[in-house]
Amino acid sequence: MTESLIFITNQLSKYIIPFLLVGIPFYGLIIKKVKVYESFVEGAKDGFDIALRIIPYLVAILVAVGMFRASGAMELFISLISPVLNIIGFPAENVPLAMMRPLSGSGSLGLFTDLVNEYGTDSIYTKIGATMFGSTETTFYVLAVYFGSVGIRKSRHALIAGLIADTVGVIAAVYICKLIFIA
Amino acid sequence: MLNYIWFGLIFISVVVGTITGRIDLVTEAAISMSKTAVEIAIGLIGIMALWLGIMKIAEESGLIKIIAKIIKPITIRLFPDVPVDHPAMGSIVLNMAANMLGLGNAATPLGLKAMKELQELNEQKDTATDAMCTFLAINTSSVQIILPATVVGLMGASSSEIFITTIFATSMSTIAAIFSVKFLSKMDRFKIRQEDK
User: Could you read off the pLDDT of A87-122 as tens digits, one per residue?
Assistant: First the structure.
């Protein structure tokens, strides 16, 4: 059943963007008589400004994360924390992905690809990894881009809350997969 | 908070890089990542322009207000300090919908539009409001119904098995995001401090 559900949702998701691209101007022009072309251009103007405004924030975050990954500090941190996480039943194989996920999108995709290549798609580690990947986000990147776009420098509790959410997502991924896939 | 984490990442990198003899790589990463950051931002221009243009049509035709009204019962609890009929509510909802459907490309421009509208309600322009923090936390917890295309691509037929587990884990992280953001906003150290103008 889930297989067909996935098929249907994937098929549907193909049509969502074209539907929005035609549906919104349709509603505007035909029903509300909005000058759609002029509105579009007016709104689109902001794209350039916003993209430029996030550059300093992106540079700050990506440089720090890139240095951290390149220095080998990530591996060191993982080897330190793995034994502790093992005690609560967190598999060592999934620690790197869990740690990388909030920091870097490309980094965590690389680690997930490693899991698939190493253990195959049927392995519990891969399934946990895939679940983690789908249930968490690159928190640091989102923070830099979203807050950066409006010039927010004092982020208050947003980062902590985001990291708590990531932690819960990662732990939930491990436990639900163990529950379902290890009978 | 971010100050210490940011400095900490750089400090640890330089110390560990020196010890492990990878200091060259650290330098290289710093330079190449600063380039990558600009490339990402430039790459966003086109897609941002596209969605912001479409959104402007949605706004001027009153579509955003209609959407904001429909989901009022939820947003009024999540964002109590944002007026119910404020355009930010519409953008927030569309951003969440795009995230749920795995439309990352559309989600970011919609999210940034929501941020811009939330900023209009902000009295201290360099400090995040409660609503912004809530919005960000929900966003980073990744409310996803459709699996990311990259995962489906790599998992192949096994992706159907992780459908349920992902929905469970992502719901848990979203609930955690909402509770922790609400709880943390009441803590003294995260309160908005009034500064001399």
Answer: 999 999 999 999 999 998 888 988 999 999 999 989
* Total tally of structural domains belonging to chain A: 2
Tokens of A109: 């995709």
At residue B94, the pLDDT reads: 86
Q: Is B44 helix (H, G, I), strand (E, B) or coil?
A: helix
Measured CA to CA, the distance from residue B120 to residue B112 in angstroms comes to 13
Residues A36 and A62 in one domain: no
Same domain, A24 and A113: no
C-beta atoms of B20 and A172 within 8 A: no
Residue with tokens 């989102």: A142
CB contact, 8 Å: B95 with chain A?
no
Q: What's the domain range around A25?
A: 1-44
Inter-chain residue contact A43 with B52, CB threshold 8 Å: yes
What is the arithmetic mean of pLDDT over B158-186?
90
**Do A56 and A35 sit in the same domain of this protein?**
no
- Domain spans in chain B, listed from the N-terminal domain onward: 24-188
Q: Nearest to residue A2, comparing CAs of B143, B172, B169, B152?
A: B152
- B69 pLDDT band, cuts 50/70/90, is confident
ipTM: 0.87
Assess whether A86 and A7 both reside in one domain: no
Instruction: Select the residue from B140, B154, B188, B190 to test the A interface by mutation, using most A Cβ atoms within 10 A.
Output: B140
Measured between CB atoms, does B148 come within 8 Å of chain A? yes
| Same domain, yes or no: A51 and A38 | no
